[in-house]
UniProtKB/TrEMBL annotation, chain A:
Keywords: Cell membrane, Membrane, Transmembrane, Transmembrane helix, Transport. Signal peptide: none annotated. Its main location: membrane. Coiled coil: none annotated. It is a multi-pass membrane protein. This is Inner membrane protein YgaZ. InterPro entries: Brnchd-chn_aa_trnsp_permease (IPR011606).
TrEMBL record, chain B:
It holds the Pfam family AzlD. This is Branched-chain amino acid transport protein (AzlD). The chain crosses the membrane at residues 6-23, 43-60, 72-102. Keywords: Membrane, Transmembrane, Transmembrane helix. It comes from the Bacteria.
Length: 247, 107
């Protein structure tokens, strides 16, 4: 895709907005299901919608609602929410450098709007965007996801049990992750990271709280780092050489 | 569950979801990560995204789905489209269409 050059942070914001927009198709069925799960857990439409607006983390909301439905104690619900969201610790660490130019309230706002889609797209595009535009691109990418998420959980709660299940629309969720995954496979180590991460997560898919995803990610990262370092020696050896050479 | 319980859950989840997204990035402005960890962070997108994609193509209800699983073939078609055209809407559209076609022929 050839895009015209960006002239202002505003341009970067709208570029991010427009590039994430098609991926909101995957969010909508997920939001409908979450709205429905909220009803089953005994929440009313207002509580369900505000939950999405305040939490904005689909998988953890769904897990928490299932636990609330079965009458779990509050600490258990929160612990499950934390475990499901552990991948955000990795996302936040990985993207910290690219969001560093943001000051004041923009940084917590960007953190609040962090999802898989704007994270992966920003990691892919930051070199071409440059440090000035990258944080605005990220922020713009979070907005359509937020609107789609809050809106679709609200509609799911309103429609109740009338959401058709046979359409297979929920398959749009892995498809939108596929769109992000393919460009992340830049070289052999990243391909290895994906294969190991994907297969370990698949093997551990029946673990509770999506723990398999987190463990798989760690295994995949280890595989990528190992393969990269096997080819050219570990990063710390480079650093050692640099030190010996002096400034 | 009382309304108070519901709100405590919602507010607690909101705080957790914000903290895991915000604190790592702000702490990293003051501390530098070891280079091995920095190197590892570059593989976060590939490893996590694959963890979100693979189980949807390979499993059904938490079990290994085998080859007669329409999601697997529809997903492979979508991967090809994503790689060739780099277009989100087209990939999702073709993937869903392939799934419906495969289901309608009874796979």
């Amino acid at each position: 895709m050839v895009s015209p050059p960006l002239n202002s942070p505003k341009d970067a914001f709208w570029r991010g907005f427009l590039e994430v927009m098609p991926m909101t198709i995957g969010v909508i069925p997920f939001g409908l299901v979450t709205g429905l799960a909220g009803l089953k857990a005994g929440l009313n439409v207002l509580e369900i919608t505000l939950m999405s607006a305040l939490v904005f983390a689909g998988a953890s909301q769904l897990v928490a609602l299932q636990l609330m439905h079965s009458g779990a104690a509050i600490p258990l619900v929160l612990l499950a929410g934390l475990v499901v969201n552990l991948r955000y610790v990795m996302y936040s660490s990985a993207i910290a450098r690219h969001l560093a130019p943001f000051r004041g309230w923009l940084k917590p706002l960007a953190a609040f709007l962090m999802v898989d889609q704007n994270f992966a797209l920003t990691m892919e595009r930051h070199q071409r965007l440059g440090p000035r535009f990258t944080p605005w691109y990220f922020l713009g990418g979070g907005v359509p996801q937020y609107i789609a998420w809050v809106g679709s959980t609200y509609i799911g709660a309103l429609l109740g049990a009338r959401v058709p299940e046979g359409w297979g629309l929920e398959f749009a969720i892995p498809l939108s992750f596929m769109v992000l995954l393919i460009p992340a496979l830049r070289d052999r180590p990243s391909l290895a990271a994906a294969l190991v991460g994907g297969l370990v997560a698949t093997a551990l898919v029946s673990l509770p709280y999506r723990l398999g995803l987190f463990i798989g990610a760690l295994a995949g990262i280890a595989a990528g780092v190992w393969l990269e370092n096997r080819k050219r020696g570990p990063a710390w050896e480079d650093a050692l050489k640099e030190m010996k050479k002096g400034p | 569950m009382t309304p108070l319980d519901i709100w405590l859950n919602i507010l607690g989840l909101a705080l957790i979801a914000f903290a895991v997204r915000y604190y790592p990035m702000t702490l990293l402005e003051r501390f530098r990560l070891p280079s091995l960890v920095q190197q590892g962070l570059r593989y976060v997108p590939a490893a996590t995204l694959a963890g979100l994609v693979f189980p949807a193509l390979l499993t059904k209800n938490g079990q290994w789905a085998g080859l007669a699983h329409p999601e697997l073939w529809a997903g492979l078609v979508a991967a090809l489209v994503a790689w060739r055209f780099k277009n989100a809407l087209l990939t999702i559209g073709v993937g869903l269409l392939a799934l419906w076609l495969l289901r309608s022929v009874g796979l």
